[in-house]
Amino acid sequence: MMEKFELDPDLQEEIRAKVFGDGFMKLVQSVRRGGVNFRISLRPVMIGGEKRFQAEMVDGGNVQVKNLAPGDVPAGLDEILAQKGARDLHLMCGDGDLHVRVTRKGRAHVSRSGKMERKVSVLPHDRVKNLPLEAFDSSALLRVTGIADGSGAIRASMRGKYNQVNEFLRMVAGTVKPADPEAGFVAVDCGCGKAYLTLALYFYLRSAMGLKRVSVIGVDRRGDVIGAARKMAEQLDVSDEVRFIESDLAKVELEKANLVVSLHACDTATDEALAKGVEWKAEYVLSAPCCQHELQSHMSKERNADFAGLLRQSILRERFATF
């Protein structure tokens, strides 16, 4: 006799056959545990020219990814199928989809899509969606910075910031290549603002890139944002490694910095950051200019008659000053 929540043995065998068949695309199962969703997905990937299965587990705000050899998958799949409680399972294959919904009373409702003819291809591992914030346990970081709510879910209003931080960390990963992870590494965020990027940079360098001795300094002349940033560093217990300085960038004195970051620092702060990068003998500089207010003040249409049509539009004048 079947136990409550147990899937029918024939259904389990059907799922196993499809997962190990040629047309398997992806399996996703979501379980509600104590008000928190636990989701596990399984899909084939190519790593080093060999087929593997990538398992991604999302438990609240924690994400864990494992790449399994084919021989390790049967046991993992058995664990997925043996999950108890109300849950939803979605199996995608080239010839169609299979949906299984297990209710709170333990009843399994099974539905199948119509016949499909989807092209199935196993993507190489580096084509899988790359989210640097999922390369380490970023749950505390996201909650403290307010990007995620108390349960770990990304706030709808902060989705843009979440994407921005991921893009920034991708640039860091593609640029910073320390020869010795044991050596000290100093990064300076010029015009750090609310410190989303500053704090994320520390955790990514330390936890994802494996640098052992990381020091990150955030610089901004606004006392309110520096005070808030220091409080977040204390909450994350990294105030010794991540320091915030309230100062004009030109007044900051350091002997050495490995990485200088200046993303949309206001007015001429971008130029000051570049100068400091040279002064501090930085190995890496990540910079994107901002509004260039000082330069814009010299760009009146009266002084530059040839560009009068462009300069009378404020947004065009701002972009022109940037370049």
Give the structural class: alpha/beta
Indicate the percent of residues in helices: 25-40%
Radius of gyration from the CA trace? 26 Å
Oligomer: single chain
Count of β-strands: 13
Low-confidence residue ranges: none
Mean residue pLDDT: 84
Strand content: 25-35%
Number of domains: 2
CA distance, first residue to last residue: 73 Å
- Enumerate how many helices there are, as a single number: 10
Order of helices and strands: HEEEEHEEEEHHEHEHEEHEHHH
The largest sheet is:
8 strands, mixed
Care to describe what's here?
The structure is a single chain. This protein is α/β, with parallel strands linked by helices. It folds into 2 domains: 9-129, no CATH class; 175-290, 3-Layer(aba) Sandwich (Rossmann fold). The protein has helices at 9-19, 73-81, 139-144, 159-175, 196-208, 223-235, 269-279, 293-296, 308-311, 314-322, and strands at 24-33, 36-47, 50-59, 62-68, 87-93, 96-102, 108-112, 123-124, 184-190, 213-220, 242-246, 259-263, 284-288. α4 packs across α5. The longest helix has 17 residues, at 159-175. The mean pLDDT is 84.
Write the layout of secondary structure elements.
Blueprint: H1 9-19, E1 24-33, E2 36-47, E3 50-59, E4 62-68, H2 73-81, E5 87-93, E6 96-102, E7 108-112, E8 123-124, H3 139-144, H4 159-175, E9 184-190, H5 196-208, E10 213-220, H6 223-235, E11 242-246, E12 259-263, H7 269-279, E13 284-288, H8 293-296, H9 308-311, H10 314-322
Parallel strand pairs: 2-8, 9-10, 9-12, 10-11, 12-13
Antiparallel strand pairs: 1-2, 1-5, 2-3, 3-4, 5-6, 6-7
Helix pairs in contact: 4-5
